[in-house]
Amino acid sequence: MSDHIRVHRLAVFARHGVLPEEAAIGQRFFISLDAAVDTRAAGASDDLTKSVSYADMADVAVGIATARRFNLLEALAEAIATDILAGFPLIEAITVRIDKPSAPVPHVLDSVSVEITRSRADG
């Protein structure tokens, strides 16, 4: 699939992480979504019903990230990918990236991240 609908660095405040302090204090996370979608019909017709709303995808990601708590970024990304594939039948594959800028590691870094890709072909 060569067509993509992307949401870059959607900011959310949440309480994910293994450490008790992360659950108590919380921090900012950035979620990026890259959906593989055939956009030809939408492009030809200028009709949103033939595509996928990036606002709706963002709502799903924010809803999961703020309503549930995860120890691992991998689990958060998996939950987002699963719900997006279930809720948007036109999406053939979704890549979810979670950036954690304030990861509690004893090194100077910009952020840590997890990125997964899931597709309908995965089953």
From TrEMBL:
SMART domains given in the database record: FolB
Gene: folB
Catalytic activity: 7,8-dihydroneopterin = 6-hydroxymethyl-7,8-dihydropterin + glycolaldehyde
SUPFAM superfamilies, sorted: Tetrahydrobiopterin biosynthesis enzymes-like
Record-linked InterPro entries: Dihydroneopterin_aldolase, FolB_dom, GTP-CH-I_C/QueF
Protein family: Belongs to the DHNA family.
GO biological process, one term: tetrahydrofolate biosynthetic process
Keyword tags: Folate biosynthesis, Lyase
Annotated EC: 4.1.2.25
A GO-annotated cellular component: cytoplasm
Keyword Ion transport part of the UniProt annotation: no
Pfam families, A to Z: FolB (PF02152)
Listed name of the protein: 7,8-dihydroneopterin aldolase
UniProt xrefs under PANTHER family: DIHYDRONEOPTERIN ALDOLASE 1-RELATED (PTHR42844:SF1)
Lyase found in the keyword field: yes
Class of the enzyme per the UniProt entry, highest EC level: lyase
Role, per record: Catalyzes the conversion of 7,8-dihydroneopterin to 6-hydroxymethyl-7,8-dihydropterin.
Pathway the protein acts in: Cofactor biosynthesis; tetrahydrofolate biosynthesis; 2-amino-4-hydroxy-6-hydroxymethyl-7,8-dihydropteridine diphosphate from 7,8-dihydroneopterin triphosphate: step 3/4
GO molecular function: dihydroneopterin aldolase activity
Annotated Dihydroneopterin aldolase/epimerase domain residues: 5-118
